[in-house]
Design goal:
By secondary structure, the chain is α+β, with helices and mostly antiparallel strands. It contains 11 helices and 20 strands.
Amino acid sequence: MRDPRQKALARVLVEYSTRVRRGDIVLVKFTDGTPLEFVREIQAASLRRGAKYVRLDYANSDLALDFYRNASPSALGYFPAAELEFMKQVDVFIGLAAPLNSRVLAGVPGRALAARQRLLRPIQEERVNRTRWVVTRYPTQAQAQEAGMSLEDLEDFYFRCCNIDWERVKRRQAELVRILRRARQVRLLAPDTDLRFSLQGIGAISCHGERNMPDGEVFSAPVAGSVEGVIVFNTLCEAQGKQVLNPRLVFREGRVVETSAERGGKDLEVILDTDRGARVPGEFSFGLNPRIRRPLGNTLYDEKIMGSIHLALGSAYAECDNGNRSCLHWDLVRLMHDGEVKVDGKTLQRRGRFVPEVLRGLNRL
């Protein structure tokens, strides 16, 4: 039996997020935990909008593990040129992750994962920079367990966060965009954190359901070389199949020069050695989704938590480009319930709540 919420969300992804139109080539990539009914709804909605081709790509985590366990050096180093050529034809990309085991690649050496990421980077860049794309993570038992919820409760939470009026979200976030576009200096303060950087000339972008689902953030990027100080992130941060708990980073002249973590410190160093750009922030953002209030151990949700900020190590987005390039883009989330965000010397946010009158509407559900 199909869930009517799936059909509603499929329409959001197809008609609003990616705006599929007549003659489009659509690539839908889905993983092992994605309900087939949801994939069918997306395919049907795309075809009804006039897409001339909908390609369905299935990815299985166990098969990915087998690849890394059995691949020869030549197989690991093979670049699938045909995938890049097809991505150049794609107009719309819809990514449906639904991990049955988020740690399935934990036993694969981090250097092997990083090397593969570097190899496939041209395909990733083509997808990010040229297609109309959106990604989401459909609830699974594994995610529900990590979040400390039943699957039914996580599904209810997921659809509440996704099936909302994203045009209204865009209007609510517009004033924060205007403030950050004029901003010069930002300072993050908390008992364990004192981080400073410039946003001057970079700009700011509102995210309101067009790239991530769920969504709700406003992002910019630190000026290259401007990040100074220390920050401790107070959430579980995941990349390359590895989990790092509460990483602490020290920056000098815009680069990470010292690291530690409550758990996963060695993995943290391996991830930051992915390439030269991996130690440089490519994004700074405020989480603004009022229906997400606590960490779930899933970055796509956690980076949208109301009252949070996140700093992404690695590649910058073209919309707010500070020039950093990397095959890594790792969002590290900090809840600011014990902290303060200052912009040009004035308090913009205190204990996770916006202070200026023009932004107080962002504090409410």
